[in-house]
Amino acid sequence: MIxxxxxxxxxxxxxxxxxxxxNYAQQTGRLLGPDGKSYxxxxxxxxxxxxxxxxxxxxxxxLPVLFRPPYRLGAPKLDLCFQRRLNEIPFDxxxxxxxxxxxxxxxxxxxxxxxxxxxxxxxxxxxxxLAAARSxxxxxxxxxxxxxxxxxxxxxxxxxxxxxxxxxxxxxEGPVRVINNGTDMARTSPDNRRGPAARAVAEELGLAEDxxxxxxxxxxxxxxxxxxxLESLAIxxxxxxxxxxxxxxxxxxxVGSGDxxxxxxxMCRKLDIADEVRFLGVxxxxxxxxxxxxxxxxxxxxxxxxTSALSIREAAxxxxxxxxxEGSTTAEGIRDADNGYLxxxxxxxxxxxxxxxxxxxxxxxxVGISAQESLYRTWETVGAEVLEEYKRLIAEHKKRS
Length: 401
Description:
Layout: E1 2-6, H1 16-32, E2 37-43, E3 55-60, E4 62-64, E5 72-74, H2 80-88, E6 93-96, H3 101-113, E7 117-121, H4 125-133, H5 136-146, H6 148-151, E8 155-158, H7 161-169, E9 176-178, H8 196-205, E10 213-217, H9 226-243, E11 251-255, H10 261-270, E12 277-279, H11 286-295, E13 298-300, H12 310-317, E14 322-325, E15 341-343, H13 347-358, H14 361-375, H15 379-400
Parallel strand pairs: 1-2, 1-6, 2-3, 6-7, 7-8, 8-9, 10-11, 10-13, 11-12, 13-14, 14-15
Antiparallel strand pairs: 4-5
């Protein structure tokens, strides 16, 4: 079986869909072994060399997206060497992980080769388009164009049941298959909640043993409700200082990058929480990231934009409970004070939920254990499920042909 994963983002870009694309390709590639091959088709990235043992990455000419670094705008029609190489590959199935330029390549191959195409719906694209276009009319026109990827697919996949409602809102009325995401992180034992990686992070940050640590990793963009997060941290600081005047209230760590990063830092200064909030930029060391999750008391994720954040499963692997917004898409399956924490979508309510969770360490451990039991799922498990679905689609397509 020859499989093609098509996406406009891929490492070194570190967003969630890039991670899904990499793990789908690697896990199916390893399972196929010598009987097949797994490819990733994606825009080029300057000064970066792909080095993977079970997949081959095909890059095509691209230009920087000036308003959204580090993303790239692919121009495959200008890359003749890439076109020749792509046409030589006898794909059995192609998978568009996004509806952008790479998806058009996947559609063209599926049509010419008469093979099935899967299209995955990962993000609330309208929010991104509106933020860039600043016109509802233009944004709706672009969204309708992008939705053609899903209308033309053999099968549409998404990451949870809640996201199906967004697909319907965007105009897709066909069947949808749910394939839950996974994580590459190992389970943390309750007996060793703060292992060597957590201790290394604490030493690097200069954290005392009893220092409260809050954590966020992801794109630094306003769509993720980060304004509410910072406003809630300002409220939390005042409340904790009233309780314990001589103690540092908390340390908040941001990992990642995005076009709102500088504005977020400025907002911290205006809210008088700059001493409590640190921005560490992009970190690709997975052991170190695991250490942040293990050392953190809570993972903060108030996003209404995400569909199924990989970071929530990563936090669960490390017994770190997540504080989410009640009713958000990504909070599917979360029960307050059971396997996570839920808050209303206001800074006051979010600050209060974090405050109450910090006040009860025994409950936090119990909630973290429950999160791990209910949310933990490896990419190996996902890869095996995905490969079986590919086999089914290929067989069904051949019967119809």
